[in-house]
């Protein structure tokens, strides 16, 4: 009988406690607009005046040994109805839906995310692509902002991220 407690005490250092976190985040940017043109006027709710309305979930799990697994699910949102922006597709995670593995080597990310060609101009945009800084010119050039089934690699922060 004394062997069982000794065995359990010997295994205690082998147990690894993972620490994870999940964050719910979002922005609801809804306003009231009054437009008058040609003798007619309209007052209505507007969406995404200074920022894109969105709802998201992100989380990470410490795997030990300097490795972290993560996920990010982010959906566009209509502030006046609570639905996705496109009524045909409903509520979906069209903004970002990724899983990742990060460590001292950097980060490997899989799923729906920004394109590599969009990261550079977005990084230097003080408005982060919202409001007055919306990426209209970028889209006019035919470059996609997001792409599905992406495999992305990011350098470690010590090398510029």
What does the model show?
It is found in: Cell outer membrane. It is a multi-pass membrane protein. It holds the Pfam family Porin_4. It comes from Diaphorobacter ruginosibacter. Residues 1-18 form the signal peptide. The chain has 161 residues and is mainly β. The chain has one domain: Beta Barrel (Porin). It has helices at 3-11, 116-123, 136-140, and strands at 20-27, 30-37, 40-47, 54-64, 67-76, 96-103, 106-114, 146-154. Strands 1-4-5-6-7-8 form a six-stranded antiparallel sheet. Strands 2-3 form a two-stranded antiparallel ribbon. The radius of gyration is 23 Å and the shape is elongated. The chain starts with a helix and ends in a 7-residue tail after the last strand. The model is unreliable at 1-16 (pLDDT under 50).
For the largest beta sheet, what order do the strands appear in spatially?
Answer: 1-4-5-6-7-8
Can you write the helix and strand succession as a string? HEEEEEEEHHE
Regarding quaternary structure, what we see is: single chain
Name of the CATH homologous superfamily: Porin
Number of helices: 3
Q: In angstroms, what is the radius of gyration?
A: 23 Å
Q: Return the structural class.
A: mainly beta
Q: Overall pLDDT, averaged?
A: 80
**Outline, from the CA principal axes?**
elongated
Low-confidence runs of at least 5 consecutive residues: 1-16
CATH topology: Porin
Distance between the termini: 55 Å
- How many strand segments? 8
**Largest sheet entry:** 6 strands, antiparallel
Tally of structural domains: 1
CATH architecture: Beta Barrel
| Share in β-strands | 35-45%
Pfam family, one: Porin_4
Main location: membrane
InterPro entries: Gram-neg_bact_OMP, Gram_neg_porin_domain, Porin_dom_sf
Subunit structure: Homotrimer.
């Amino acid at each position: 009988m004394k062997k069982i407690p000794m065995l359990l005490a010997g295994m205690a250092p082998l147990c690894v406690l993972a620490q994870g976190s999940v964050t719910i985040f979002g922005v609801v940017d809804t306003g009231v607009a009054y437009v008058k043109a040609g003798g007619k006027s309209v007052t209505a709710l507007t969406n995404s005046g200074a920022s894109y309305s969105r709802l998201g979930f992100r989380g990470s799990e410490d795997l030990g040994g300097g490795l972290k697994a993560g996920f990010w699910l982010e959906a566009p949102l209509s502030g006046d109805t609570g639905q996705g922006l496109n009524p045909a597709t409903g509520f979906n995670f069209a903004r970002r839906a990724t899983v990742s593995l990060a460590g001292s080597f950097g980060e490997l990310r899989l799923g729906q995310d920004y394109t590599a060609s969009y990261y550079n101009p977005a990084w230097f945009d003080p408005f982060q692509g919202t409001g007055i800084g919306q990426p209209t010119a970028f889209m006019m050039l035919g470059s996609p902002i997001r792409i599905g089934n992406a495999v992305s690699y990011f350098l470690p922060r010590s090398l510029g991220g």
